[in-house]
Amino acid sequence: MPDETVEAEVCVVGGGPGGRALALALARLGRSVVLLERRDPGRGAGPVFRGESVSPDGVRLLDGLGAWEQVRGAAHRVDRLEIEDAGRRVLDVRFADFPYRYRHPVELPQPALLSALAELTARQPGPCTVLAPATAVALLGAGPAVTGVRAVTPHGTVRVRAALTVGADGRHSTVRRLSGLGERARRTLLERDVVWLKLPHPADWDRRAYRVRIAGGSHALFLPCADGRVRVGLNVPKGGLRQLRAQGLDALRRRLAALAPEVADAAREGLRGWSDTALLDIFTTEVPRWSAPGVVLLGDAAHTLSPVLGQGVNHALADAAELAPLLDRALAEGRGAGRALGAACETYQRLREPAVARSRALQLRQERLFTLAGPGAAVLRRALYRTVGASPALRRRVLAPAYFPGQRPGDRHRPAAETSPV
Ligand SMILES: Cc1cc2nc3c(=O)[nH]c(=O)nc-3n(C[C@H](O)[C@H](O)[C@H](O)COP(=O)(O)OP(=O)(O)OC[C@H]3O[C@@H](n4cnc5c(N)ncnc54)[C@H](O)[C@@H]3O)c2cc1C
Fold this sequence. Notes:
The chain is α+β, with helices and mostly antiparallel strands. It has two domains: 212 residues, FAD/NAD(P)-binding domain, CATH 3.50.50.60; 90 residues, D-Amino Acid Oxidase, Chain A, domain 2. It is 37% helix and 27% strand. The chain has 13 helices and 21 strands. The strands form four sheets. Strands 1, 2, 8, 9, 10, 11, 19 and 20 form an eight-stranded mixed beta sheet that branches. Strands 6-5-14-15-16-13-17 form a seven-stranded mixed beta sheet, with helices on both faces. α1 packs parallel to α4 and α11 packs across α12.
């Protein structure tokens, strides 16, 4: 079969939250988009373990895209964040207490989010062609500028010619590698990896709380899922999964029960094999330049973060919301668009990078706190959490960069039920 060639103003590689949100935002502005996604939509709802926690700021961004009403039925609102260290509660944060319009994080399965974004995109004035499965394997361009992408599909090869190619293809981005933007990227391995699994939700647990349980140098996250289960992220030392597997499934159940005795029964019933678990190797990637002529990176491809405080989806959505209007203005220049697009991409990085850096710094501080192991260090950690918990101003200072970076305090005197759209 001969190669097919399609054309668009923008080619988006990757149909995760970032790529889908950008396609929607551009289509709303009337721009033509081709989106390539390597996963086969015919093969079920996709992987079970992907970012599901959407921060209050992510809700704000979805609302701005006109997508919140579409997904709110599938979202599970979270009211509290609770940290227990050595069996004692050291921090209890109520999201309703924050003085922002969008206060509550939600748990939102990625398949529901992605299909809502796709459905909305199809209703916009700008044409968006989605090719899936289609895997980008090469960049096009004779000179220094990228002019599109070559992708492989089950029916042959497709060339997409576009004024701009966007690498929204995740933490192991092919576009980043092929464009050379990954050459000076700094990858930092964190000390821990996370084993993810889902269990029945303990009946006596509040279904609207995030829980962090710490004991010595070990910790786990317990996040309520929209489907009524609890998503567990158990931290293991880097490379420790092999050791854990060698010890057997019972060792994993014991580790969980030691951190949260309430899940002991659920772990016995709900954890039947290693295929019920998924490992996330934790690293952060800092990419010095997010764009080159004809190509730009977005979401995890531009800045992979750790899973602490569920930041990845939010930043991918924020990137898309920032980038789309800049591209729209640049594309409006017609023949001079190449240079204008380059400037737009540089502006986008300048506007987005500080918020990403603040999240990364907050995550690294939090990771260090989690991994403090000696008795003296653990006492210090507990004292720190208690100090933060005791002061509303300090709570806001610590948590605002994670949960409310795009919002200003306001609506302070009105009850949450009246003002919060969640
Ligand atoms: C187990 C796990 C749990 C997580 N939990 C959370 C959480 O609770 N909250 C949170 O905010 N974040 C979480 N994250 C991170 C979050 O999922 C990501 O930060 C977020 O999805 C980034 O969005 P993205 O669109 O940039 O990239 P991705 O979601 O990774 O999407 C990239 C897309 O590109 C496609 N793709 C890749 N290569 C190609 C190619 N060559 N051609 C075509 N398509 C390609 C992929 O199939 C994928 O669909 C978690 C991640 C994992 C793995």
